[in-house]
Write a structure and sequence with these properties.
The protein is 42% helix and 17% strand. By secondary structure, the protein is of the alpha/beta class. The chain folds into 3 domains: 175 residues, P-loop containing nucleotide triphosphate hydrolases (Rossmann fold), CATH 3.40.50; 92 residues, Winged helix-like DNA-binding domain superfamily/Winged helix DNA-binding domain (Arc Repressor Mutant, subunit A); 108 residues, 3-Layer(aba) Sandwich (Trna Endonuclease, Chain: A, domain 1).
């Protein structure tokens, strides 16, 4: 059964029944469930389907004939769907001409002809002329046939954006619809686990999300007979663990220059608040150029990193921050460069490094659920900007950091304190004076007309003791699990 994706399912069925030619792109990061969505929605309605060959190969020589292999594989798909025996195509123009011929032969004049091309970016090998062939297929033939629907899926968001959605050539403005498939939020993770028969508390689901994110493919590895720590042990650390090498596979499948992209991500992982462009260039040794800008944009488009403006010294400065939960957890505890104490995750759960990571990971979870936080605050319709803020300390002045700032157009700034606890949070005297100090520092850099609302985001709420009144609003896990 397909969990969630109700809006996407409804829209895809409406496009299928529109009675006119449709060209639809479904995109999102690898393992997010794009192919599964198409299979579940259309089931037996697919007339022709093909998936590009993965560029990941143990045989380096295979890449020399990549175009030939892709064309040969496409030819096999044509044969499997009923095309008469013939020689393989020598170009993508020939390949799409063959597809046109096959569809004409199979057209009964009654049923919609749905063409599904999966992992389309892998077909676009260097100098192959794939886009030219796709243009000829759609512009010269398919768009004129009211019963044809072309659905393409891609894990490379940047490829879909550059080559299809923002195409300035023959495919300019040719897409009739686009769907960006996002990772599950907490509510969708909960529904997914329920559908798999896993009985997990919302506290446990939040921890699972903090380790693998809302990626259905990863969540599917969780075993209902195991606790969350036992599952993490089995998924990442045991011999033959399915996600032990996923980081390298993920980047190799998405990017033509995976080593460079990984170096950017690993550099960002060294600083929770993120790095400025200048700091990132210095840390990676990459040359500042338009190519570097495109690489950052590709990581943004793939939801691996986010770009945000940070307050500081009276001005705003842009930071790039690693935001993908899986990458953060993998680089901290699973990769070869991480601590070898990781082998027994259950025994490591109470170590200081894991406790520190848990706090930061929950902050990241909150950053990925801004929509739910705004709903809990009753400001869903208010325009906002979200950021982190930190002030470096000196020999004489202590530094300070604010976990999340929500600057609202209604002249309110929510100064958010984020705490991951296994029980209610207690605001003590130390917490009180820290809030007072941060509020004073924040007051120096926000508009004078703005009000500051101290906001607590925590797991199980705020204990009503002496200083609980310091917080105007309290947001809990229950709020973060809203279905929005």
């Amino acid at each position: 059964m397909l969990t969630g994706r109700e809006k996407e399912q409804k829209k895809l069925r409406a496009l299928y029944e529109s009675g006119q030619a449709e060209f639809v792109a479904v995109y999102g990061r690898r393992r997010v469930g794009k192919t599964y969505l198409i299979d579940e929605v259309f089931n037996n309605d697919i007339t022709f389907r093909h998936a590009g060959l993965s560029p990941i190969s143990d045989d380096d020589t295979s890449k020399k004939n990549n175009m030939k292999e892709q064309l040969g594989h496409f030819h096999q798909s044509l044969l499997a769907h009923g095309m008469k025996e013939c020689e393989p195509p020598e170009s993508w123009l020939d390949a799409f001409y063959m597809l046109e011929k096959l569809l004409l032969e199979r057209d009964d004049g009654k049923k919609r002809q749905l063409v599904f091309i999966d992992e389309i970016q892998w077909l676009d090998t260097p100098k192959a002329g794939f886009i030219r062939g796709l243009e000829a297929f759609w512009n010269g033939w398919a768009c004129h046939r009211h019963n044809v629907m072309l659905v393409v899926c891609g894990s490379s968001t940047s490829w879909i954006l550059d080559k299809l959605i923002n195409n300035h050539g023959g495919l300019y403005n040719r897409l009739t619809w686009e769907i960006e498939l996002q990772p599950f939020n907490l509510y969708e993770c909960e529904q997914f686990f329920i559908s798999k028969g896993l009985s997990l508390s919302r506290y446990d689901i939040a921890q699972a999300y903090m380790m693998v994110g809302g990626i259905p493919y990863y969540l599917n590895y969780f075993d209902k007979a195991l606790s969350v720590p036992q599952n993490i042990q089995a998924i990442f650390f045991d011999r033959g663990a399915p996600l032990k090498d996923e980081f390298d596979r993920l980047f190799s499948s998405l990017f033509t220059n995976p080593d460079v992209m990984k170096s950017i991500v690993m550099a960002l992982n060294t600083k929770y608040r993120g790095l400025t462009r200048r700091e990132l260039l210095s840390k990676t040794g990459i040359t500042d150029s338009g190519l570097f800008s495109r690489q950052l944009k590709s990581l943004e488009n793939g939801a691996f990193i986010i770009k945000y403006d940070s307050y500081g010294n009276g001005k705003r400065e842009s930071f790039y921050k690693l935001a993908d939960p899986f990458c953060i957890f993998y680089l901290r505890f699973v990769s070869d460069s991480s601590s070898r104490k990781k082998k027994e995750w259950i025994s490591a759960a109470d170590t200081q490094s894991v406790v520190t990571w848990t706090g930061l990971a929950f902050e990241n979870l909150c950053f990925n659920h801004i929509k739910q936080i705004k709903a809990a605050l009753g400001i869903s319709g208010v325009s906002t900007d979200e950021s982190l803020w930190s002030k470096k300390g000196t020999d004489d002045v202590e530094g300070a950091q604010i976990d999340l700032i929500i600057e609202r157009k209604d002249n309110v700034v929510n100064m958010c304190e984020i705490k991951f606890y296994s029980d209610e949070f207690t605001a003590d005297k130390e917490c009180h004076f820290a809030l007072v100090r941060r509020e004073r520092l924040l007051r120096e850099i926000i508009p004078k007309k703005a009000s500051i609302h101290n906001t607590l985001i925590t797991t199980f709420g705020l204990r009503r003791v002496e200083y609980f009144g310091d917080f105007v609003s309290t947001i809990t896990l229950e709020d973060l699990f809203q279905d929005l």
